[in-house]
Amino acid sequence: MINKTSCLRVARLYMASLDRIAETVPPLGHTMTSVKGWLPDRSKKSLEKIMADTSDRKKDRLADFIYSHYLRGGNLIHQEHNHEKDGGAVLKAQKECLVRLENIREYAHKKMDAEEFKKRVVEHMPHEEAYKRLTPAGKDSLTDSWYGAKSFGNGLSTGKKFVSSPKGKLAVTHKLYFTPVRSTENLVMFFRVLPKMLYEFLRMPDSDFHGLASFKIPGGVYGDFASMVDPYMENDILVLHYYDARDKKKLQDYVESHLKSKGVELSDRPYTEGFDLKGENRMDSKSFGEIVANNASKKILEETADLSVTDAVDWVQQHIVDVVKELAIKLTARLHKELHSEETT
Fold it and tell me: How far apart are CA 151 and CA 211, in angstroms?
């Protein structure tokens, strides 16, 4: 059994230690920037092939391209590519962050005592050693996206809402997106702030919220997909999932205030809010990125129907940000209207 006084002492030590470690950041290296909507030559060639397609698969192929090249990663957001090696500073900060996050979660689940937590997290045990001490489930959680939930089965309801569809009721998950400016200095600071931010979040009273909420952070740095999780390219570096729309402002203010307090700059995203829809079957479920990509594909094909392949590709690069922004706002507004309608019927 964990002693309450010991836990509080460890908590205070941990908060102070995180404040100290967040102060020291490696110098910013030289970077080169690229504008929103820009595509590298290889991706541009792929888009040219899609726009030249005359089959029935063209719309789906274009939607997949938009999702993978713009929404998940790429130049939907102003991009800063590290031009010189950062000495592994960002990857190291990312690994340390994820291991600390998982140790915090295991501590919250009472899978370690206060003394062990102090060794691993408060005293900043090297992340390689702290990783080895995780439970098998904890290690597995770092091979994909990492989640940290607000509630640990302590009575807080999920707050889930549903909307109707031809395939039945779909559960709604609201989402808030945060993307730090992609520079070495800013990314390192971002990863150093996250553990403290999550730790305080987990300690907030359930009475402060109307429903369940959780953090999602791309993991994979310890798994087979490590090369795919690149903070210099990933758009959705931090996503908050929540189920009751009334919690939006509290969650958004909470994250932004923590990041701002340590000088972390956020990128100018075309959208910062979205939702997922989940049905009983996986085929009935759609992420917000998939929903936006499908609608954007339809819109683009309508707008470029009379253009040559070359002009159509140029149109996509010039207008993709505006198309996505407009659709994201419209789709989110429509969802809230449908939710209100469901609640009043």
Answer: 9
Give Cα separations from 37 to 10, 103, 300 (angstroms).
47, 39, 14
Give CA–CA dist 3/18, Å, rounded: 22
Q: How many residues does the chain have?
A: 345
- Listed in sequence order, the residues at least 6 apart from 304 whose beta carbon sits closer than 8 Å to its beta carbon are 51, 311, 312, 315, 316
Beta-strand relationship, 213-217 and 238-242: antiparallel
- The tens digit of pLDDT for each residue in 62-71 reads 999 999 888 8
Q: Which amino acid is at 130?
A: A
The pLDDT tens digits for 171-200 are 899 999 998 988 888 989 999 999 888 888
User: What CA–CA distance (Å, rounded) separates 164 from 12?
Assistant: 47
